[in-house]
Design a protein that fits this description.
The complex is a heterotrimer of chains A (250), B (278) and C (279).
Chain A lengths: L1 E12 L2 E12 L3 E5 L6 H8 L9 E9 L2 E2 L7 H7 E4 L10 H11 L5 H14 L3 H4 L12 H14 L4 E5 L7 H14 L4 E6 L2 H7 L2 E6 L2 E6 L1 H6 L4 H7 L5
Parallel strand pairs in A: 3-8, 3-9, 6-7, 7-8
Antiparallel strand pairs in A: 1-2, 1-4, 4-5, 9-10
Chain B lengths: L1 H13 L1 H24 L1 H6 L3 E2 L4 E2 L2 H31 L3 H14 L4 H19 L7 H26 L2 H9 L4 H12 L1 H17 L2 H6 L17 H9 L4 H31 L1
Antiparallel strand pairs in B: 1-2
Chain C lengths: L5 H34 L5 H5 L2 E2 L4 E2 L2 H32 L4 H15 L2 H15 L6 H26 L2 H9 L4 H30 L2 H7 L16 H11 L3 H33 L1
Antiparallel strand pairs in C: 1-2
Classes of the chains: A alpha/beta (250), B mainly alpha (278), C mainly alpha (279).
Chain lengths: 250, 278, 279
């Protein structure tokens, strides 16, 4: 079952093409890894999926992106509901300057969840799923800025979980983290995929190899190859894929 | 939908600034133009006969007084301001700068009436006793104004000096210049446009100053021939006579306001253009 | 001639520079000390709580304190929404272009208008055209025009200082634009905005020219904003100019300078805390 289908997607920033005729389907409740060197359009692809690209005035988008068979690029699509369903974790941990508790309840409360009991429940569930609960359960009402980098990033993950999104987008989520925090994030993702559709963008091929169920390789805005990790990493069909995974360029 | 309404409301609020500017211009001109038209622009500007009760509306002596006071204030104030700016920007340990710069800017917070007051009880007797004349004079006004515009010129000059790329200073020092030589021969010329902007803004401030000048200028309506002569500036005239004026007299005061307005606006636009060209 | 070589000249210049700078700071300190020396002894409880009597020769300055307060509240009530709204529009809703340049031009020109011209304007429109006469309302509105550019500028700077990432996070959680501004951007920009307001208050306290032409100078205790009222600064001016009472004048000057110093220092401290929070 495909959660998301990207059909003939082309994106231009002014004159510069960022993505060219992308056709890609994202399976439900799996981890799809998107890899490629810098500037290959990976981040742009991610931001199309929750329409954060709306913030860029010079952008031109052609094609269709279907979430549960509905095109999210159409003007009639309610962007705020979309973003509640499709959550995002950024490369840099960005906790809001508030308490841990408030960081997690901020989104749900905007979307109408008022019941305190329900909010408390979401806070605990999302923190447990992000493997952060034990570390912060006694200081939920302290400032989130006091957490370490790894903890903050897991908090950001928990933030999207508290929204009960269906899809989680992660843009190089562990690029600044130490190995232990990275491992915790990856473990959390492995547990989460049974309930969530996860799309992970990374320049770290080993991470992609570790946790993805499906891998897509992007280079300079083009989708070069797609398939299970075993294929792309041990027996790629494209020469460029092989060069990338063997480190001949990056 | 709600977002669109909010955006429209904010846009209307945002145009308030320029709307007010237009409004002010329109009102001042509307109130003042009749007399200028009646008396003729050249007569208004170039006659030194200001006798409102007799229908004479020449503001030349006030214009000259305003200019004289301002130019003197600049002559007295700029060297001092630049000295402070250079000291604080270049010869001052960083920690001191954090205290001293706000301190000088504090000078800008002191109300003009307090300056005027101190001018009257301290400066004016000094001038009267040691230099002659009534004390209430062009000189007194210039000195007070110089102190008042000091924070403005100093602040902007410090920013201008600090904005000069470090490369310039390093280049000069590398060639063996002393710190002072680097400042005098390289930094100051490089910061020239910023400093000039500062001076222009100081001028605009000085010409527009009213309360302090009223208290120490002496308010004699004639073209000054010496620093010790009492003078009456455009601003003083407007402020002093407004209360009891009526009819053409009042209109003429607004007309004087128009002249002041145009001049100061011109200076401000000049300064902003210079600042942007940088 | 030792003094003629470069290092020697530098030392000479440095000494000269520090003398001049020291004198400037000395002038400031002298002003404050002088005013406080003569004026602080006047700040008795009677002085602050009694109304002016006998044209200001005796009694206190209570009525003027109240008038000043009314004036500032009215001025801020108008200038803050206008200024904040403009700043929000400039930073969040537009990109650099003709419209923003026009708005900025208007703001800068407005900032350069001398207070006496604003006084004239206030007189022409509020006192005469609107028919409100000399009143605290006229004064407050004229004052708000003066404060507007400062509030726009400080608000804009504070809003721009809020990291773009906070906005992205809010959007990615499905928070709409206006709620992002009110729930995320403005709370973070608050210290800077507050500083702008506080500085505006300090300016208002010392302002005279605008107020004399619009609020008049009635010494009566103001019972409504449609009445004329005399602010502390105007009171000081009249006391000083007419030579009514030196002790009263010094006292008024002292409280003016004291308030302005305290307010400026608080603004400075708020700004420091703000900067610390983001670095």
């Amino acid at each position: 079952m495909d959660k998301i289908r990207i059909i003939n997607l082309t994106v231009l920033y002014g004159e510069q093409p960022s993505l060219q005729s992308i056709n890609l389907s994202i399976p439900e409740k799996r981890i799809t890894g998107i890899m490629g060197p810098s500037n290959s359009g990976k981040s742009t692809l991610l931001r199309i999926l929750n329409r954060l690209t709306d913030l860029i005035p010079t952008i031109l988008i052609r094609g269709r992106v279907l979430l549960d068979e509905e095109d999210i690029l159409l003007p009639k699509c309610d962007v705020n509901s979309l973003r509640a369903r499709v959550g995002m974790v950024f490369a840099k941990p960005i906790p809001l300057p508030r308490t841990i508790y408030e960081n997690l309840t901020f989104g749900p409360r905007i979307h109408g969840v008022k019941d305190k009991y329900l909010l408390d429940q979401r806070v605990e569930e999302s923190l447990r799923a992000a493997i952060l609960w034990d570390e912060v359960k006694d200081r939920l009402f302290e400032s989130a800025l006091k957490l370490s980098g790894g903890q903050q990033q897991r908090l950001c993950l928990a933030r999207t979980l508290a929204m009960q999104s269906e899809v989680i987008l992660l843009d190089e989520p562990t690029s600044g983290l130490d190995p232990i925090s990275t491992a915790k994030v990856e473990e959390a993702l492995r547990n989460l995929k049974k309930d969530y559709t996860i799309i992970l963008v990374s320049n770290n091929t080993k991470q992609i190899a570790r946790i993805s169920d499906k891998v897509a390789f992007f280079l300079l805005g083009e989708l070069i190859e797609v398939g299970p990790p075993e294929q792309l990493f041990t027996n790629p069909t494209e020469k460029r894929t092989e060069d990338y995974v063997s480190g001949r360029f990056g | 939908m709600r977002e669109k309404i909010i955006e429209k409301i904010l846009m209307i609020l945002a145009f308030s600034a320029i709307g007010l500017l237009l409004l002010i211009t329109i009102f001042i001109f509307r109130e003042g133009l009749p007399v200028i038209l009646k008396v003729g622009l050249s007569d208004f500007l170039f006659s030194d006969q200001w006798a409102p009760t007799n229908g004479h509306f020449g503001i030349l002596s006030m214009i000259i007084s305003s200019l004289a006071v301002t130019v003197m204030a600049i002559i007295l104030g700029v060297p001092l301001s630049l000295a402070c700016a250079i000291t604080l920007a270049e010869f001052c340990p960083r920690r001191w700068l954090l205290i001293l710069k706000p301190t000088i800017e504090l000078l800008a917070g002191i109300p003009s009436v307090v300056f005027g007051f101190l001018g009257v009880i301290l400066l004016v007797p000094l001038i009267r006793d040691y230099l002659g004349g009534p004390g209430l004079s062009l000189l007194a006004s210039s000195i007070i104004l110089a102190i008042m515009i000091l924070p403005t010129i100093t602040s902007i000059s410090i920013d201008a000096l600090q904005a000069v790329p470090l490369l310039y200073k390093e280049g000069a020092l590398a060639m063996g210049a002393t710190h002072w030589q680097a400042v005098w021969y390289v930094l100051l010329p490089a910061a020239r446009s910023g400093v000039v902007t500062a001076i222009i803004l100081g001028m605009a401030r000085a010409i527009g100053e009213t309360m302090a000048v009223i208290m120490v200028a002496g308010n004699a309506l004639k073209i000054p021939t010496s620093l010790l002569d009492p003078v009456r500036t455009l601003t003083s005239t407007i402020a002093l006579e407004m209360g009891y004026s009526s009819g053409d007299h009042r209109t003429a005061l607004f007309a004087a306001g128009i002249v002041l307005f145009i001049f100061i606006m011109g200076l401000n636009i000049l300064a902003n253009t210079l600042m942007r060209k940088k | 001639m030792i003094l003629l070589n470069a290092p020697g000249r530098q030392t000479l210049m440095k000494i000269l520079l520090w003398i001049l700078t020291g004198s400037t700071i000395g002038i400031l300190i002298f002003i404050i000390v002088f005013i406080f020396y003569h004026g602080l002894p006047q700040l008795t409880w009677t002085f602050l709580s009694a109304n002016p009597a006998d044209m200001g020769r005796s009694g206190g300055i209570f009525a003027t304190i109240v008038s000043t307060l009314y004036l500032i509240i009215i001025a801020l009530a108008f200038a803050t929404p206008l200024g904040l709204g403009t700043a929000i529009y400039l930073t969040e809703y537009t990109h650099e272009g003709l419209m923003t340049r026009l708005i900025r031009f208007g703001t800068e020109c407005l900032a350069g208008i001398p207070s006496i011209i604003l006084g004239l304007f206030g007189f022409a429109i509020f006192v005469m055209a609107f028919g409100w006469g000399w009143s605290l309302l006229s004064g407050g509105l004229a004052l708000s025009v003066m404060l507007l550019p400062t509030i726009i500028r400080t608000s804009e700077e504070s809003i721009l200082a809020v990291p773009q990432e906070y906005r992205e996070v809010a959007y990615s959680l499905g928070v709409g634009k206006w709620r992002t501004i009110t729930l995320v951007v403005l709370p973070s920009a608050l210290p800077g905005i507050a500083t702008g307001l506080v500085l505006s208050i300090a300016r208002s306290i010392g302002e005279t020219a605008v107020i004399i032409f619009t609020a008049g100078s009635s010494l009566r205790f103001p019972n409504s904003i449609f009445e004329s009222g005399r602010t502390m600064a105007v009171h000081f001016y009249i006391l000083a100019r007419e030579g009514i009472s030196m002790p009263m004048a010094y006292g008024t000057a002292a409280i003016l300078v004291l308030l302005i110093l305290v307010i400026n220092m608080s603004a400075y401290l708020i700004m420091r805390r703000f900067i610390k929070k983001y670095t």
